[in-house]
Every structure is written in C-alpha cells, then in structure tokens.
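so my prof wants the structure for this chain in the tokens format not the other one, which i didnt know existed until like an hour ago. anyway here's the sequence
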Amino acid sequence: MDRTPPDTARRNEAGERRFGSIDELRDFCRAIEQGWFRCQALAIGSVTLSNDADVVAACFEAEAAAQTEEQVYKQVACLAWPISALITRGRIETAEEMAERSIAASGHVTPSSSRAEALVGLLEAVWPLGERFQRAIYEQLFELLAHDPHWRVMRACRDAALMYADADQPDWLADLLGSCPTQKVTRRIREDRAAGVRIRIRVYVGPRAETHESG
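here's what i got, hopefully its the right format
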C-alpha cells in the first residue's frame, strides 16, 4: 500500500508528466494544499511547457506559492526549484532576479542552522549563474559560522566548500577558508579534500521538454 502523502505524491507526479499548457499545469497543482509542494510542482512542471513566457509565469506562481508557507525557511529554501527551472530553460535574467530576492530573504531565516541549510540549497540552485551568486552565498555562510558555530552551520560550510575541488577553488574562497575562525571546519575540509571527497551539486529541475518556443 502506497503511504506517500497526497501532496508529495502529486509533486512527484509532476515530474513524470508533460503539460500542454500553463492552465493544465495550474489545474494540476491547484489540488496541492501545501505551498512547499505546490511551489516545487509548478517549477518541475514548468520545464515541459512549450512557451518560455509560460515557463516564467509558472515560476513566478511557484515563488508566490512558496510565500504561503508560515516558516520563512520554507519560503526561502523552496525557491531553489523555480530558480533551477528558469536556468534550465535559459531564462537567466529572470533567474538572477529571483536568486537575488532569495538570497536577500535568507537573512530572515532563523535559527542560524536553518538559515545555513537554506543557503546551501540556494547555492546549488544558483551554481550555474556563476561566481557572483556563489560568492554572495559563501560569504553569508562563513559570516554565519563566525557568529554561531552550530554543528549544522559547520556542516553547511563544509559541504559548500567541498563543492569545489582544492585545485579549482577561487582565491576569494581560499581567503574565506583562511580567515575562518573555526579550525574544526577548515581541518575537516582539508582532510576530506585530501581523501578525494567532493560534494555533488544537486540539480533541482533538469531539462525534460523536447521543443521550446520563444515568447
């Protein structure tokens, strides 16, 4: 017997379907009660839409769905999905604007441990947008660590650092690690890199649609 909660099951189903129109996607997602899962389903389904303007509209609706959650953590962390969908469909400027809003909103997430985990999720989502967005998140993470060395914050910083191989990390990240006051974290990062540990960057929403129309 399948015990998957209804909202989770419908979110998962969105990843298996192709939607012929934004109205079809809306109708499908309307049955999802929780904003967390409705946001994800809208973003996941959006990449199958043929018209890029509808993709953008669906991702904006996903962003709005996230904001219906009571927890600020969920409001922010969930935006990794529409950001990823926009990048997948090449709507880079819109993705950058949403990323900027998300990173700014992350400052309101409490406690620090939840904020750190939200930032790591956003880091994975914005990774294809390049160094400007990556650096903004790394700086927030290590500033957070300086004020609150909670184990989840330390884990988030370690995981973020291991998204770069030692030989590939930019100078600014090396500087952040060099000035990090929590030696336990930097020692663990060095040990993990020496052992060849690398954190695989999650792709929240990948390509599925075969043909797209600009507009």
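also thought this was worth mentioning. The first helix runs from residue 6 to 14.
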